[in-house]
Design a protein that fits this description.
The chain is an alpha+beta fold. Helices cover 41% and strands 15% of the residues. It contains 13 helices and ten strands. The longest helix has 21 residues.
């Protein structure tokens, strides 16, 4: 494809030299632009792009897989240029935790990034002692915009110098920041990614599709141990936990469900079992006479976050509980759980290896108020 583009460029020059070939020149130019668009649109992730470093050498962004990236278009003669100091401080603080800042000087805004990349690099080193990598100058808007930025901005042009994009360890664009956005706000988002506890919290989703692969017993032991180490009032630990690893037991009770819900099951072509097709279950019980629900909820959250950190998916289920308690044919399942007489089944956590990657649903931050 690169050779084809070079050939098209050469032919464009030849056509332009002829007054009678303007039409052909325009067609060829359009063809060249179309090919660049195709290259950009065909990119499925940030790791498909290549950029040039400050020495003009090609660098694949695939080299940054597993890193969190903060990508910024910069200028050395801008009112925002002092942000270099804040960016370097951010880099020094989080570099050891996997943050990389990728700097792309751009002269499109007020011509505030003049000079060669070598001169820009010398200026930034002398004035801000930057350690993060600087790449060759590019354009971020217009027909000559670098394909990386065409992909990053997704149709919304860059407004000015020091616009920033935060990219997750798996190559997803997490957030875009405008030049006036506070570096402290960016740092807060970075902490959510680099801190393993916070990243598990932010990455957890309710999973409703699972691979046909049971979770290893050793992993289930670790996850449940995390669960019972949740806080509880006066350390009463008012819960009983039952972990179902018996695939036949799940299949047998699912047959009862299928008989009672034949039409619903028939409509679901992916139906395997009544627990969102999960291969394993964690059943949480609380006192039959009430109480313990809050503590059991904390236990469940520990379980789901531990599972997330181990590459597993979970979904908290209430519907199957209602069915199990209301259908007498499910008594054999409840008997196998061996729930104490003074306890009741409260909820079930489906758990397994996820077969989907759902996007996060929006959260309403306006419901939070800080009282200072």
């Amino acid at each position: 494809m690169k050779n084809l583009i070079k050939r098209e460029q050469s032919e464009c020059i030849c056509f332009a030299e002829s007054e009678n070939s303007r039409t052909k020149f325009k067609r060829m130019l359009f063809s060249l632009m179309a090919m660049v668009c195709v290259l950009t649109l065909s990119a499925q992730s940030i790791y498909d792009f290549k950029v040039k470093d400050d020495l003009g050498k090609d660098v694949s962004l695939a080299d940054y897989k597993g890193k969190m990236l903060l990508i910024v278009n910069t200028a050395t003669r801008c009112g925002f240029t002092p942000q270099y100091k804040e960016l370097e401080a951010l880099y020094e603080k989080y570099r050891s935790e996997g943050l990389e800042i990728l700097d792309f000087p751009c002269n499109q805004f007020g011509q505030q990034a003049p000079g060669t990349i070598q001169e820009i690099h010398q200026f930034c080193t002398a004035n801000f002692d930057i350690q993060f990598p600087q790449f060759d100058k590019i354009e971020v808007n217009g027909d000559n915009a670098h394909p990386l930025y065409t992909w990053l901005k997704a149709g919304n042009d860059i407004k000015w110098n020091f616009t920033k994009f935060l990219v997750s360890r798996d190559g997803k664009i997490l957030k875009r920041y405008e030049p006036r956005d506070k570096i402290s706000d960016i740092e807060a988002d970075i902490q959510l990614e680099v801190n393993p506890v916070l990243s598990s919290i932010m990455a957890r989703r309710s999973i409703r599709k699972y691979l046909d692969k049971p979770v290893e017993h050793e992993k289930m032991e670790v996850i449940v141990k995390c669960g019972i180490n949740a806080p509880s009032g006066m350390n009463r630990q008012p819960w009983v936990v039952r972990v179902v690893e018996d695939q036949k037991l799940i299949a047998d009770v699912t047959e009862v469900y299928k008989q009672a819900n034949a039409e619903q099951v028939k409509r679901d072509k992916d139906f395997k079992n009544m627990f969102r097709n999960a291969p394993n279950l964690i059943c949480v019980c609380t006192p039959a006479n009430g109480g313990g629900e809050l503590d059991a909820g904390l236990l469940g959250e520990n379980i789901m976050l531990a599972a997330q950190s181990m590459g597993l998916g979970t979904c908290c289920l209430g519907g199957p509980v209602r069915f199990l308690l209301s259908n007498e044919k499910c008594k054999f399942f409840l008997d196998r759980l061996d729930i104490p007489a003074d306890y009741k089944l409260n909820y079930i956590i489906a758990i397994g290896y996820p077969d989907e990657q759902p996007e996060a649903k929006p959260r309403d931050a306006t419901k939070v108020k800080f009282i200072k």
